[in-house]
Amino acid sequence: MLTVAGNDWSGLDGVRPTEPPTVSVVVPYYRAQAQLDLVLAGLAAQTHPATRLQVVVADDGSPEPPVVGPGVVVVRHEDRGFRAAAARNLGARAAEGEVLLFVDGDTVPEPAYVAELAALPALLPDALVTGRRRHADLTGWTPDRLRAWFAGGPAPEELTEPAWLREAGSLLDADDRSYRFVISAVMGTSRALFREVGGFDETFDGYGGEDWELAHRLFTAGAVLAHRERAVAWHDGPDWGLRGDDPVAARREKNAETRSLARLLPDPAARGVGGWWRHPDVVVRMTPGGDVDATVLGVRSLLAAGLDLQVWGVDPSVVDDDPRVHAGEPPPPVLARCRTQVTLSGPLRWAPGGLAGLVAQVRPGGVGRVTGVVDGVQVEVAATRALRRCARWGVDMSTLFGEAQVDVPAEPLGEHPDVAHWLPRL
Protein backbone atom coordinates (compact mmCIF):
# COMPACT_ATOMS: atom_id res chain seq x y z
CA MET A 1 0.00 0.00 0.00
CA LEU A 2 1.26 3.48 -0.88
CA THR A 3 2.61 5.63 1.93
CA VAL A 4 4.87 8.67 2.13
CA ALA A 5 7.64 10.00 4.34
CA GLY A 6 6.49 12.40 7.05
CA ASN A 7 3.76 14.62 5.63
CA ASP A 8 5.27 14.95 2.16
CA TRP A 9 2.47 14.06 -0.26
CA SER A 10 3.81 16.51 -2.88
CA GLY A 11 4.62 13.67 -5.29
CA LEU A 12 0.89 12.90 -5.46
CA ASP A 13 -0.22 16.46 -6.12
CA GLY A 14 -2.43 16.41 -9.20
CA VAL A 15 -2.29 12.60 -9.51
CA ARG A 16 -5.57 10.78 -10.01
CA PRO A 17 -6.35 7.09 -9.42
CA THR A 18 -6.44 4.98 -12.57
CA GLU A 19 -10.00 4.06 -11.60
CA PRO A 20 -12.31 6.40 -9.68
CA PRO A 21 -12.66 5.15 -6.10
CA THR A 22 -15.91 4.17 -4.48
CA VAL A 23 -16.91 7.14 -2.34
CA SER A 24 -19.47 7.62 0.41
CA VAL A 25 -20.51 11.17 1.29
CA VAL A 26 -22.06 11.64 4.73
CA VAL A 27 -24.37 14.64 5.19
CA PRO A 28 -25.45 15.42 8.78
CA TYR A 29 -28.94 16.89 8.83
CA TYR A 30 -31.42 18.45 11.22
CA ARG A 31 -34.74 19.98 10.23
CA ALA A 32 -33.51 22.01 7.23
CA GLN A 33 -35.10 20.47 4.13
CA ALA A 34 -34.57 23.45 1.80
CA GLN A 35 -30.84 23.52 2.49
CA LEU A 36 -30.61 19.75 2.16
CA ASP A 37 -32.33 19.95 -1.24
CA LEU A 38 -29.49 22.18 -2.45
CA VAL A 39 -26.80 19.89 -1.02
CA LEU A 40 -28.36 16.82 -2.67
CA ALA A 41 -28.67 18.70 -5.96
CA GLY A 42 -24.97 19.55 -5.72
CA LEU A 43 -24.07 15.92 -5.05
CA ALA A 44 -26.24 14.78 -7.98
CA ALA A 45 -24.22 17.10 -10.25
CA GLN A 46 -20.81 15.64 -9.37
CA THR A 47 -18.26 14.81 -12.06
CA HIS A 48 -17.37 11.68 -10.08
CA PRO A 49 -19.22 8.67 -11.57
CA ALA A 50 -22.64 8.29 -9.98
CA THR A 51 -22.23 4.51 -10.00
CA ARG A 52 -19.28 4.88 -7.62
CA LEU A 53 -20.87 7.46 -5.32
CA GLN A 54 -23.05 6.75 -2.28
CA VAL A 55 -24.84 9.55 -0.44
CA VAL A 56 -25.82 9.01 3.20
CA VAL A 57 -27.98 11.55 5.04
CA ALA A 58 -27.57 11.21 8.82
CA ASP A 59 -30.56 12.74 10.59
CA ASP A 60 -29.83 14.08 14.07
CA GLY A 61 -33.34 13.45 15.37
CA SER A 62 -35.53 15.72 13.23
CA PRO A 63 -39.28 15.58 14.01
CA GLU A 64 -39.88 14.37 10.46
CA PRO A 65 -37.42 12.38 8.34
CA PRO A 66 -35.74 14.23 5.46
CA VAL A 67 -37.13 13.89 1.95
CA VAL A 68 -34.48 12.54 -0.42
CA GLY A 69 -34.30 11.19 -3.94
CA PRO A 70 -33.81 7.64 -5.17
CA GLY A 71 -30.64 5.91 -4.05
CA VAL A 72 -29.91 8.27 -1.14
CA VAL A 73 -29.53 6.40 2.15
CA VAL A 74 -31.13 7.91 5.24
CA VAL A 75 -30.14 6.88 8.77
CA ARG A 76 -31.66 8.43 11.89
CA HIS A 77 -31.26 8.48 15.62
CA GLU A 78 -33.49 9.95 18.30
CA ASP A 79 -33.39 13.61 19.26
CA ARG A 80 -31.19 14.00 22.34
CA GLY A 81 -30.02 17.50 21.53
CA PHE A 82 -27.22 18.63 19.21
CA ARG A 83 -25.21 15.51 18.39
CA ALA A 84 -23.47 16.24 15.09
CA ALA A 85 -20.52 14.00 16.02
CA ALA A 86 -22.79 11.03 16.73
CA ALA A 87 -24.83 11.71 13.57
CA ARG A 88 -21.71 11.70 11.40
CA ASN A 89 -20.61 8.43 12.99
CA LEU A 90 -24.06 6.99 12.32
CA GLY A 91 -23.73 7.94 8.68
CA ALA A 92 -20.19 6.58 8.48
CA ARG A 93 -21.36 3.19 9.77
CA ALA A 94 -23.71 2.99 6.78
CA ALA A 95 -20.95 4.00 4.35
CA GLU A 96 -19.76 1.43 1.83
CA GLY A 97 -17.18 3.44 -0.15
CA GLU A 98 -13.43 3.04 0.30
CA VAL A 99 -13.21 6.83 0.64
CA LEU A 100 -15.35 8.63 3.22
CA LEU A 101 -16.21 12.29 2.67
CA PHE A 102 -18.22 14.71 4.77
CA VAL A 103 -20.16 17.79 3.76
CA ASP A 104 -22.53 19.65 6.06
CA GLY A 105 -26.26 19.86 5.45
CA ASP A 106 -25.99 23.60 4.72
CA THR A 107 -22.84 23.41 2.56
CA VAL A 108 -23.32 22.88 -1.19
CA PRO A 109 -20.53 21.09 -3.06
CA GLU A 110 -19.36 22.24 -6.48
CA PRO A 111 -19.44 19.57 -9.23
CA ALA A 112 -15.75 18.69 -8.82
CA TYR A 113 -15.90 18.46 -5.01
CA VAL A 114 -15.97 14.66 -4.70
CA ALA A 115 -13.38 14.01 -7.40
CA GLU A 116 -10.96 16.59 -5.99
CA LEU A 117 -11.36 15.63 -2.33
CA ALA A 118 -11.39 11.84 -2.80
CA ALA A 119 -8.33 11.55 -5.07
CA LEU A 120 -5.63 11.71 -2.40
CA PRO A 121 -7.28 9.34 0.15
CA ALA A 122 -7.87 6.88 -2.72
CA LEU A 123 -4.14 6.88 -3.50
CA LEU A 124 -2.91 7.32 0.07
CA PRO A 125 -5.15 5.71 2.72
CA ASP A 126 -3.36 7.69 5.45
CA ALA A 127 -4.52 11.00 3.97
CA LEU A 128 -6.80 13.37 5.86
CA VAL A 129 -7.93 16.03 3.42
CA THR A 130 -9.78 19.26 3.98
CA GLY A 131 -11.41 21.18 1.16
CA ARG A 132 -12.18 24.84 0.70
CA ARG A 133 -15.33 26.23 2.28
CA ARG A 134 -16.61 29.38 0.67
CA HIS A 135 -19.67 31.34 1.78
CA ALA A 136 -22.72 32.67 -0.06
CA ASP A 137 -26.24 33.84 0.65
CA LEU A 138 -28.42 31.05 -0.74
CA THR A 139 -31.66 32.27 0.82
CA GLY A 140 -34.56 31.34 -1.45
CA TRP A 141 -32.41 29.35 -3.86
CA THR A 142 -33.84 26.27 -5.53
CA PRO A 143 -32.11 23.19 -7.00
CA ASP A 144 -32.92 24.47 -10.53
CA ARG A 145 -31.27 27.80 -9.80
CA LEU A 146 -28.27 25.98 -8.34
CA ARG A 147 -27.90 23.81 -11.43
CA ALA A 148 -28.08 26.91 -13.61
CA TRP A 149 -25.29 28.52 -11.58
CA PHE A 150 -23.07 25.46 -11.93
CA ALA A 151 -23.74 25.51 -15.67
CA GLY A 152 -22.37 29.06 -15.91
CA GLY A 153 -25.41 31.09 -14.92
CA PRO A 154 -25.77 33.85 -12.30
CA ALA A 155 -23.90 33.21 -9.05
CA PRO A 156 -25.14 34.03 -5.56
CA GLU A 157 -23.84 36.88 -3.46
CA GLU A 158 -20.51 35.75 -2.07
CA LEU A 159 -19.84 36.45 1.60
CA THR A 160 -16.52 36.89 3.38
CA GLU A 161 -14.33 33.81 3.44
CA PRO A 162 -12.63 33.31 6.84
CA ALA A 163 -8.98 34.35 6.72
CA TRP A 164 -7.91 31.63 9.16
CA LEU A 165 -8.98 28.91 6.72
CA ARG A 166 -7.21 30.58 3.81
CA GLU A 167 -3.98 30.51 5.85
CA ALA A 168 -3.86 26.71 5.75
CA GLY A 169 -1.93 26.57 2.49
CA SER A 170 -1.26 23.06 1.21
CA LEU A 171 -0.49 21.68 4.73
CA LEU A 172 2.62 19.98 3.34
CA ASP A 173 4.45 21.43 6.34
CA ALA A 174 1.75 20.35 8.82
CA ASP A 175 2.69 20.50 12.48
CA ASP A 176 1.07 19.55 15.77
CA ARG A 177 -1.37 22.49 15.54
CA SER A 178 -2.48 22.01 11.94
CA TYR A 179 -5.58 20.18 13.16
CA ARG A 180 -7.05 23.71 13.40
CA PHE A 181 -7.33 23.85 9.61
CA VAL A 182 -9.46 20.70 9.32
CA ILE A 183 -13.22 21.25 9.35
CA SER A 184 -15.79 18.49 9.11
CA ALA A 185 -17.93 20.59 6.76
CA VAL A 186 -15.48 19.78 3.93
CA MET A 187 -13.38 16.80 5.01
CA GLY A 188 -12.35 13.40 3.70
CA THR A 189 -10.24 10.37 4.56
CA SER A 190 -10.20 6.66 3.90
CA ARG A 191 -13.03 4.72 5.52
CA ALA A 192 -10.45 2.29 6.95
CA LEU A 193 -8.52 5.01 8.77
CA PHE A 194 -11.70 6.66 10.07
CA ARG A 195 -12.86 3.35 11.51
CA GLU A 196 -9.42 2.52 12.92
CA VAL A 197 -9.46 5.63 15.13
CA GLY A 198 -13.12 5.17 16.09
CA GLY A 199 -14.59 8.17 14.29
CA PHE A 200 -15.77 11.34 15.99
CA ASP A 201 -15.81 11.55 19.78
CA GLU A 202 -19.50 11.43 20.68
CA THR A 203 -19.04 13.17 24.01
CA PHE A 204 -19.19 16.44 22.06
CA ASP A 205 -22.79 17.54 22.49
CA GLY A 206 -22.63 21.16 21.37
CA TYR A 207 -21.51 23.22 18.41
CA GLY A 208 -17.88 22.92 17.32
CA GLY A 209 -14.70 21.18 18.42
CA GLU A 210 -15.38 17.60 17.34
CA ASP A 211 -13.65 18.06 13.98
CA TRP A 212 -10.47 19.49 15.54
CA GLU A 213 -10.37 16.69 18.10
CA LEU A 214 -10.77 14.06 15.39
CA ALA A 215 -8.14 15.73 13.19
CA HIS A 216 -5.67 15.76 16.09
CA ARG A 217 -6.37 12.11 16.82
CA LEU A 218 -5.97 11.18 13.15
CA PHE A 219 -2.71 13.11 12.87
CA THR A 220 -1.49 11.34 16.01
CA ALA A 221 -2.44 8.06 14.34
CA GLY A 222 -0.10 8.91 11.48
CA ALA A 223 -2.48 10.67 9.10
CA VAL A 224 -1.03 12.81 6.31
CA LEU A 225 -2.71 16.22 6.29
CA ALA A 226 -3.54 17.96 3.02
CA HIS A 227 -5.57 20.97 1.94
CA ARG A 228 -7.22 20.76 -1.50
CA GLU A 229 -8.38 24.21 -2.58
CA ARG A 230 -10.08 22.88 -5.71
CA ALA A 231 -12.50 20.85 -3.56
CA VAL A 232 -14.97 23.68 -3.00
CA ALA A 233 -18.27 23.69 -1.17
CA TRP A 234 -20.44 26.74 -0.44
CA HIS A 235 -21.78 27.32 3.05
CA ASP A 236 -25.20 28.95 3.11
CA GLY A 237 -24.57 32.03 5.23
CA PRO A 238 -21.57 33.64 6.90
CA ASP A 239 -18.91 31.91 8.96
CA TRP A 240 -19.68 31.40 12.66
CA GLY A 241 -17.28 34.18 13.67
CA LEU A 242 -18.90 36.68 11.29
CA ARG A 243 -22.57 36.11 12.09
CA GLY A 244 -22.97 39.01 14.49
CA ASP A 245 -24.71 36.91 17.12
CA ASP A 246 -25.19 38.06 20.69
CA PRO A 247 -21.56 38.49 21.85
CA VAL A 248 -22.14 37.04 25.31
CA ALA A 249 -23.90 33.96 23.94
CA ALA A 250 -21.20 33.55 21.28
CA ARG A 251 -18.47 33.79 23.90
CA ARG A 252 -20.18 31.18 26.07
CA GLU A 253 -20.48 28.84 23.08
CA LYS A 254 -16.83 29.29 22.19
CA ASN A 255 -15.76 28.81 25.81
CA ALA A 256 -17.68 25.53 26.00
CA GLU A 257 -15.85 24.36 22.87
CA THR A 258 -12.49 25.38 24.36
CA ARG A 259 -13.18 23.46 27.57
CA SER A 260 -14.23 20.36 25.64
CA LEU A 261 -11.07 20.46 23.54
CA ALA A 262 -8.80 20.99 26.55
CA ARG A 263 -10.22 17.87 28.13
CA LEU A 264 -9.26 15.65 25.18
CA LEU A 265 -6.63 17.40 23.13
CA PRO A 266 -3.09 17.48 24.62
CA ASP A 267 -1.96 20.62 22.83
CA PRO A 268 -0.36 23.03 25.32
CA ALA A 269 -1.79 25.97 23.39
CA ALA A 270 -5.28 24.46 23.68
CA ARG A 271 -5.27 23.54 27.37
CA GLY A 272 -2.78 25.92 28.95
CA VAL A 273 -0.90 25.05 32.12
CA GLY A 274 -1.82 24.16 35.66
CA GLY A 275 -4.41 21.48 35.00
CA TRP A 276 -4.54 17.73 35.49
CA TRP A 277 -5.71 15.82 32.45
CA ARG A 278 -6.80 12.25 31.84
CA HIS A 279 -5.11 12.33 28.44
CA PRO A 280 -1.51 13.54 28.82
CA ASP A 281 0.69 14.80 26.03
CA VAL A 282 3.61 12.51 26.95
CA VAL A 283 3.25 8.88 28.05
CA VAL A 284 6.21 7.34 29.87
CA ARG A 285 6.61 3.61 30.41
CA MET A 286 9.24 3.11 33.09
CA THR A 287 10.62 -0.12 34.50
CA PRO A 288 11.01 0.34 38.27
CA GLY A 289 14.49 0.43 39.74
CA GLY A 290 16.12 -2.20 41.89
CA ASP A 291 14.89 -0.44 45.02
CA VAL A 292 12.07 1.88 45.93
CA ASP A 293 14.33 4.92 46.50
CA ALA A 294 15.66 4.90 42.94
CA THR A 295 12.14 4.39 41.63
CA VAL A 296 10.77 7.34 43.64
CA LEU A 297 13.50 9.68 42.45
CA GLY A 298 13.18 8.48 38.86
CA VAL A 299 9.45 9.14 38.82
CA ARG A 300 9.81 12.50 40.56
CA SER A 301 12.47 13.55 38.07
CA LEU A 302 10.09 12.76 35.20
CA LEU A 303 7.23 14.66 36.80
CA ALA A 304 9.55 17.64 37.31
CA ALA A 305 10.40 17.78 33.59
CA GLY A 306 7.89 20.54 32.92
CA LEU A 307 5.84 18.44 30.50
CA ASP A 308 2.21 17.36 30.42
CA LEU A 309 3.32 13.87 31.36
CA GLN A 310 2.16 10.73 33.15
CA VAL A 311 4.03 7.55 34.05
CA TRP A 312 2.96 3.93 33.62
CA GLY A 313 4.55 0.72 34.91
CA VAL A 314 5.09 1.86 38.49
CA ASP A 315 3.03 1.10 41.59
CA PRO A 316 1.55 4.51 42.45
CA SER A 317 1.71 3.73 46.17
CA VAL A 318 5.48 4.29 46.11
CA VAL A 319 4.85 7.96 45.26
CA ASP A 320 1.95 8.46 47.65
CA ASP A 321 -0.66 7.58 45.00
CA ASP A 322 0.18 10.50 42.76
CA PRO A 323 -2.64 10.46 40.13
CA ARG A 324 -0.07 10.89 37.35
CA VAL A 325 1.51 7.51 38.13
CA HIS A 326 -0.08 4.21 37.14
CA ALA A 327 0.61 0.49 37.27
CA GLY A 328 0.28 -1.56 34.10
CA GLU A 329 -0.02 -0.27 30.55
CA PRO A 330 -1.52 3.04 29.37
CA PRO A 331 -5.12 2.56 28.18
CA PRO A 332 -6.00 2.85 24.46
CA PRO A 333 -7.76 6.26 24.74
CA VAL A 334 -4.60 7.72 26.27
CA LEU A 335 -2.33 6.20 23.61
CA ALA A 336 -4.71 7.45 20.91
CA ARG A 337 -4.15 11.07 21.93
CA CYS A 338 -0.63 11.39 23.37
CA ARG A 339 1.83 12.94 20.94
CA THR A 340 4.94 11.33 22.42
CA GLN A 341 5.83 8.00 24.02
CA VAL A 342 8.91 7.49 26.19
CA THR A 343 10.23 4.08 27.22
CA LEU A 344 12.82 3.70 30.00
CA SER A 345 14.30 0.41 31.14
CA GLY A 346 15.07 1.95 34.54
CA PRO A 347 14.91 5.20 36.53
CA LEU A 348 17.11 8.19 35.70
CA ARG A 349 17.71 11.67 37.05
CA TRP A 350 17.09 14.09 34.19
CA ALA A 351 19.05 17.28 33.62
CA PRO A 352 16.88 20.44 33.58
CA GLY A 353 15.15 20.61 30.21
CA GLY A 354 16.73 17.31 29.16
CA LEU A 355 13.62 15.26 28.53
CA ALA A 356 11.80 18.21 26.96
CA GLY A 357 14.69 18.58 24.53
CA LEU A 358 14.40 14.96 23.41
CA VAL A 359 10.64 15.30 23.03
CA ALA A 360 11.16 18.36 20.82
CA GLN A 361 13.35 16.28 18.49
CA VAL A 362 10.41 14.00 17.58
CA ARG A 363 7.91 16.73 16.83
CA PRO A 364 6.85 17.12 13.16
CA GLY A 365 9.83 18.31 11.17
CA GLY A 366 12.18 16.24 13.30
CA VAL A 367 12.77 12.51 13.37
CA GLY A 368 10.29 9.85 14.40
CA ARG A 369 12.38 8.34 17.18
CA VAL A 370 15.54 8.99 19.21
CA THR A 371 17.31 6.38 21.32
CA GLY A 372 20.22 6.27 23.72
CA VAL A 373 21.73 4.45 26.68
CA VAL A 374 22.71 5.76 30.12
CA ASP A 375 24.80 3.29 32.12
CA GLY A 376 22.77 0.36 30.82
CA VAL A 377 19.37 2.11 30.98
CA GLN A 378 17.75 2.06 27.54
CA VAL A 379 15.95 5.24 26.52
CA GLU A 380 13.52 5.62 23.61
CA VAL A 381 11.52 8.75 22.78
CA ALA A 382 9.16 8.41 19.82
CA ALA A 383 6.35 10.29 18.12
CA THR A 384 3.08 8.38 18.41
CA ARG A 385 2.19 9.30 14.83
CA ALA A 386 5.42 7.72 13.59
CA LEU A 387 4.89 4.57 15.65
CA ARG A 388 1.29 4.20 14.45
CA ARG A 389 1.93 4.69 10.75
CA CYS A 390 4.99 2.44 10.67
CA ALA A 391 3.10 -0.29 12.53
CA ARG A 392 0.09 0.06 10.22
CA TRP A 393 2.10 -0.68 7.11
CA GLY A 394 4.98 -2.71 8.57
CA VAL A 395 7.50 -0.11 7.40
CA ASP A 396 10.81 0.69 9.08
CA MET A 397 10.91 3.92 11.11
CA SER A 398 14.02 5.19 9.33
CA THR A 399 12.23 4.98 5.98
CA LEU A 400 9.19 7.13 6.81
CA PHE A 401 10.34 9.43 9.61
CA GLY A 402 14.01 8.91 10.37
CA GLU A 403 15.61 8.10 13.71
CA ALA A 404 18.72 9.09 15.60
CA GLN A 405 21.04 7.97 18.37
CA VAL A 406 21.50 10.69 20.98
CA ASP A 407 23.42 11.46 24.13
CA VAL A 408 20.76 11.24 26.81
CA PRO A 409 20.86 14.26 29.19
CA ALA A 410 20.35 12.18 32.33
CA GLU A 411 22.35 10.23 34.85
CA PRO A 412 21.79 6.87 36.55
CA LEU A 413 20.49 6.78 40.08
CA GLY A 414 22.08 3.50 41.11
CA GLU A 415 20.98 1.63 44.20
CA HIS A 416 19.86 3.36 47.41
CA PRO A 417 20.35 6.97 46.30
CA ASP A 418 20.16 9.68 48.94
CA VAL A 419 16.54 10.81 48.63
CA ALA A 420 16.91 13.80 50.98
CA HIS A 421 19.88 15.01 48.96
CA TRP A 422 18.35 14.66 45.50
CA LEU A 423 14.70 15.64 45.96
CA PRO A 424 15.42 19.42 46.20
CA ARG A 425 17.70 19.15 43.13
CA LEU A 426 15.28 17.49 40.71
TrEMBL record:
Phylogenetic classification of the source organism: Bacteria, Bacillati, Actinomycetota, Actinomycetes, Geodermatophilales
A GO MF label: glycosyltransferase activity
KW Transcription (keyword) present: no
Domain Galactosyltransferase C-terminal: 179-222
Pathway(s) it belongs to: Cell wall biogenesis; cell wall polysaccharide biosynthesis
Entry keyword annotation includes Metal-binding: no
Record key words, sorted: Glycosyltransferase, Transferase
Taxonomy, superkingdom: Bacteria
Ranges of residues in domain Glycosyltransferase 2-like: 24-148
Record protein name field: N-terminal domain of galactosyltransferase
Listed Gene3D superfamilies: Spore Coat Polysaccharide Biosynthesis Protein SpsA, Chain A
Homology family: Belongs to the glycosyltransferase 2 family.
